Amino acid sequence: MTTPRDPTRLLAARVGGFMPNPIVTAARSLWPLVFGLVIAFALQSLVAPMIGPFYAKMLLDIGIAIVLASSLNIVNGFAGQFSIGHAGFMMVGGYAAALVTYYGSIKLGWIAPDAYGVDVHGGFMGSGDALFMFACVFGGVVAALAGLVVGLPSLRLRGDYLAIVTLGFGEIVRVLVQQSSEVLEPKVAAGATLLDAVKHIGGPLGFTGTPTYVSATPWIENAAGEQTGHAGIFFTFMFVAIVLIAAYRLKSSSHGRALLAVRENEIAAEAMGVNTARAKVSAFVMAAFFAGVGGALFAHEIGTTLNPKELGFQKSIDLVIMVVLGGMGSITGVVLAATILTILPELFREFAQYRMPVYALALIIVMIVRPQGLFGIKELWDLKVWRRYVIPVWRKVAGGWLIPKQEGDLPIAMARDLSSERAGAQPAVAEDSPKAEATPPDEDKAP
Amino acid sequence: MSAKSKQTTWIVVGVLALAFAATLGKTIALGLVEGGPTKLLQTVVNTVALGSMYALTALGYTLVYGVLRFINFAHSDVFTFGAWISFAIASAFGWAVTESPLFAMPMILLLAMAACAALGVTIEALAYRPLRRAPRLNVLITAIGVSLLLQNVGQLKFVFGTQPQHMPALIHDSSLIEISGVHIRVVDVTVVLLAAVLLVALEALVYRTKLGRAMRAVSFDERVASLMGINVNRIVSITFGIGSALAAAGGLLFALKYESIKQTADSTWVLLGLKAFVAAVVGGIGNVRGAVAGAVLIAFVEMFGAAYLSPHMRDLYVFVILIVVLLVKPSGLFGKSVVEKV
Lengths: 447, 342
Description:
The complex is a heterodimer of chains A (about 450) and B (about 350).
Chain A: H1 7-15, H2 22-78, H3 86-107, H4 127-151, H5 160-178, H6 186-189, H7 194-199, E1 220-221, E2 227-228, H8 232-251, H9 254-264, H10 266-271, H11 276-299, H12 313-326, H13 331-347, H14 352-369, H15 384-398, H16 411-425, H17 434-438
Antiparallel strand pairs in A: 1-2
Chain B: H1 3-68, H2 75-93, H3 95-98, H4 101-128, H5 136-155, E1 165-166, E2 175-179, E3 182-185, H6 186-208, H7 210-220, H8 222-227, H9 232-258, E4 260-261, H10 267-283, H11 288-308, H12 314-328
Antiparallel strand pairs in B: 1-4, 2-3
Helix pairs in contact in B: 1-6, 1-9, 1-10, 1-11, 2-4, 2-5, 2-9, 2-10, 4-9, 6-7, 6-9, 7-9, 10-11, 10-12, 11-12
């Protein structure tokens, strides 16, 4: 960590003598993850039993929606590469993970050969959960490979053409999955080869019988001290925490700024020394990875079946709506949109037939009135309300142990404060007005 | 990547492609021999009928792309509405049963085309015109929004509903001629003839009239066109109207040929629109003749693939063709070679 380009060090060298303790630095950068895990654990063990199975299931849906929408936000919001085949990545990851857990459980002998379907094995953090977590990461990796394949065309194509290729990718995945045969029963699967397993992933009916590691039943200990239910909420929100932290760190890193530069103007970004090809492909790979993880969670969720019908064009569009409404490039905005758009349809079930017309209208109106989405590229903490009321409280509570006592100690925070002062001095400029982002990059219009 | 390794890559890709093509060719040749002339002729007839429907829809995409430089995702839904509106008219007036086809057919065609033209013009005025100067991504998202809106409004109970409907037979369907066991049906002939008439009319409109010249001018350079006294907004509206009317004709022909009309948000419509769009892109979007050629090519690939390779993968062939064309020649097959754009 002693590279000369580390901004903290550079600043420290300039100020003279101030050297942050590496252990403290590491702890400070890890606390969001720890915090996320604690929240996930609290949701699992405190909130879920309190709210009952119906709302626990909704909580799961929200978590998965956040993972998926945030992953789309990386490619769509940060890098500005419009993808409308995101459900394809989700499908790739989901099926890869389901292959691992379903056929893996059978091969490991966790299920009697004459039973139908596989159940969860081992307790909390037991062998079953280990397999499940491995499957999630595996699904992510396979989807990331697919992302690499789809990202390559993005080097040659832009805008609407790229959208069409991603759409074509989603459709191709769907058609291919539909050609597969029904899932093998455990009896048969015990002797099946890997190729057999890959060929039998359910076809049009979907991958039935996957173990439901992502379950809505609250995980509690009964009187005898045995665990019942599964820690699905914990795992879902663990991945939510990971994807959000990854997205946040990406956005505030030089790499993320390169992506934002590509999104604003590719030629200008290239002139500034950004390797645009690499930036675009890596955005696709990262987005595909997390979409694959989201697909893996979806595959193991209770009450849902991986099937090619459900994960088609419509699903991709749902995700696009979340990202667009939340604000392309805003992590917190997308989280909010994903949460709200998952809760609303559940609350207004009797108006189900009006759901899509209303979404579509909202999409059109937002595009006309506020083209950058509700939050634009801003985060929750960039809003005036947040700065005025939340940050002072947070500084008082956390100052000195979670964050440095004075914000000015860190260069990024300093820069942020400076820019906000400038924005305060001239309220009419740049960031706030939609027009600044709506200026058309007219390069394709040339005859 | 060095020049040499690039060359090697291309050679490897070429050899693989050749091997793949050889395998495909062998399968198709075997199929041709096995199926005999009957199957071949039947496939050709299917290809032509499907191709003319794709062409009518692809033209809408291409016309709009020509003047506004964006992909009108909602176009396939205008096609769907064309089919449903003609069904609604036919069943509401009961013409299908009472009147002779020579009266009912043109009436329904004209009414559906007028209704869809109005729909297209409205969409342009309300959704796309405010975004004329916005980044293309925003327009694209709006177009997707309009598409979703049409699909789902069409499904509402008081619009078309969610039940699939059966199109009344407007034309007495009989075999016109029989060649080596293949019946060439009246419907097929009507579909192809009507499409051909409309295509020729469009060609004449674009290249022979003052309006067409104005359209080409707007396509070439909007700003200069407006300096020359062309009312750009009017031309754009007219273009949308024409494209939508052609889509309506395509929808009616689709309903005539396949008879069953699925609900508006059904995936068959989305796929159909996508394929027509693929045809426009493959032919070189913005190019009228290219769209027709692309439509025939796509229909050819789809029908022959379905007949001689595997009927389950017909969607796959189309998208593979799309991706290959976009990667090799992103401007489409006729994108640059024919300079005239509409």
